[in-house]
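#struct-pred

JT: dropping the chains for the assembly here, can someone run the whole complex?
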Amino acid sequence: AQSVTQLDSQVPVFEEAPVELRCNYSSSVSVYLFWYVQYPNQGLQLLLKYLSGSTLVKGINGFEAEFNKSQTSFHLRKPSVHISDTAEYFCAVSQNTGNQFYFGTGTSLTVIP
Amino acid sequence: NAGVTQTPKFQVLKTGQSMTLQCAQDMNHEYMSWYRQDPGMGLRLIHYSVGAGITDQGEVPNGYNVSRSTTEDFPLRLLSAAPSQTSVYFCASRQGGGSPYNEQFFGPGTRLTVL
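RK: done, full complex below.
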């Protein structure tokens, strides 16, 4: 089974500052990587995904993530955050074998005015 | 195109009661799944289905039943509710039963409290 680690449970950051949300996964077999965002009292929305090819992936709302196979990481970044980015962010991994998504425990991003 | 819909949005049960959480999707997705979300634990898979008539257990299946008689619907049944089942439940779907590279689309969730 796969395990997904999001080391930071809470990340406070000032408005217009950069942010990085970290995600590491356990398995080195072929994986597909996803970042989802959950706004308060809503379901999850896809921010971006990595399937293959370029290791830098761009998503919606100015977010991007970099796949690092050697470090089994898929960190999410944004160069300048807005108040509206305040939300819970989940990293998820799936793999060629099996039919399950494995989610991290989430990182709560709070943007401070 | 409504996407993934869930009913009810909120539910309060007493211990021992049973109920069914409804989930429907109108995207003709083969794969559907149920998750529960608890503070500090992320989303944990309860059951999933790769097509009509096919279901399988996820990480935390105990106390829950599912069936998939149509492509559109994937209800989750709580057989005898317990306080430990207090949680937010999300249904999700994706295209392709065996396509782990496709994203999942999530419903808005059902907030369940068991007293």
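JT: nice. The two ends of chain A are 41 Å apart (CA to CA). Chain A has a mean pLDDT of 92.
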